[in-house]
Amino acid sequence: MTGCSAAARGCALLHTPGPHEGRRGADPHRRPVALPRSGSPGRQRRGAVTRSGDVTATRATPRAQIADGLDFRTTGNLRRRCGIGGFFVDRKEQRFWRGDFPADCDDVGHRELYVRRLQFAAFMPMFRSHATQPPYSPDLSTDHISRLGNLPLAPEYIYQLNHGFLSNL
């Protein structure tokens, strides 16, 4: 919420009751979930899982996402997720299209970055890939990404994180 006024941050809390109550009224047996880009204290009680918004596919973006997520969690709200897929992959005229991979999934670097982001997302409270380029869902044309996903991700580190997480429940 950097750069937003206090009034704008307060409005973020007011955006969730209407959709939440409407969905609960339509089906009281289901818990509604919203994926807003903005967050404020109290939004999680209305099913909001704050997300970082659309992110660029660069090698520097995941580092910024980790720092941003840690900052957000200091508010006490642990329900935050980030864009996994690297939404803006190549470069276009709009200022937000600043990705490093003009060949999309044909670029080995982009495939590796995508897999690393999926591995990072395994530690998020909600796992949801979000990108403008394929793969939107697994199929034979994305088998190369599945093979990259089988690469080891420092198992000792994962066990350490898991122990720390479970011991704080």
From TrEMBL:
Stretches for region Disordered: 15-59
Superkingdom of origin organism: Bacteria
Bias (Basic and acidic residues) ranges: 18-30
Keyword annotations: Glycosidase, Hydrolase
A GO term for molecular function: hydrolase activity, hydrolyzing O-glycosyl compounds
Domain Glycoside hydrolase family 31 TIM barrel: start-end pairs: 13-133
Pfam family, one: Glyco_hydro_31_2nd
GO biological process, one term: carbohydrate metabolic process
InterPro entries: GH, Glyco_hydro_31_TIM, Glycosyl_Hydrolase_31
Homology family: Belongs to the glycosyl hydrolase 31 family.
Protein name: Glycoside hydrolase family 31 TIM barrel domain-containing protein
